[in-house]
């Protein structure tokens, strides 16, 4: 969860910082578009991952080793996303697209992390009930 929070914060900050040179109207549109899709990504794409991680955490009575938290396929997915991040940083990607992607992914990660910590919201309420029912 700390990985999600730190990555989300860094991407969100980077995206907002990159957008500072745009006109106010374009900045408002890009950031609004990115935040909207960030919420959708958190709600629909990250929901299953969070439920799976919470179940893994609940299965351990004491602290859980990092290698037990993430499966090999999940670790490979994380490495793939980091690789795509480098491609976005050093590749010939238009700046408005970089802003939208950074803010979308950053906000989705941060939004999902906040809902897990708070334990509220439709996104993770059912996952926590499933865990407590065990």
Quick gist of this model?
The chain is mainly alpha-helical. It has helices at residues 2-18, 24-45, 47-58, 66-69, 72-90, 95-118, 125-132.
Shape: elongated
Listing every helix as H and every strand as E from the N terminus to the C terminus, the arrangement reads HHHHHHH
How many angstroms does the end-to-end distance come to?
22 Å
Based on helices, strands and strand pairing, what is the structural class?
A: mainly alpha
Which range best describes the helical content: under 10%, 10-25%, 25-40%, 40-55%, 55-70% or over 70%?
over 70%
Strand residue content: under 5%
Regions with pLDDT < 50 over 5+ consecutive residues?
120-134
Instruction: Report the mean per-residue pLDDT as an integer.
Output: 78
Q: How many individual β-strands?
A: 0
Biggest sheet overview: none
Taking all Cα atoms into account, the compactness measure Rg is 16 Å
Number of helices: 7
Q: Any chance you could write out the topology, listing elements then pairs?
A:
Layout: H1 2-18, H2 24-45, H3 47-58, H4 66-69, H5 72-90, H6 95-118, H7 125-132
Structure explained in plain terms:
By secondary structure, this protein is an all-alpha fold. It contains 7 helices and no strands. Helix 1 (2-18) packs antiparallel against helix 6, helix 2 (24-45) crosses helix 6 and helix 3 runs parallel beside helix 7. It is elongated. 23% of the residues are buried. Residues 120-134 have low confidence and may be disordered.
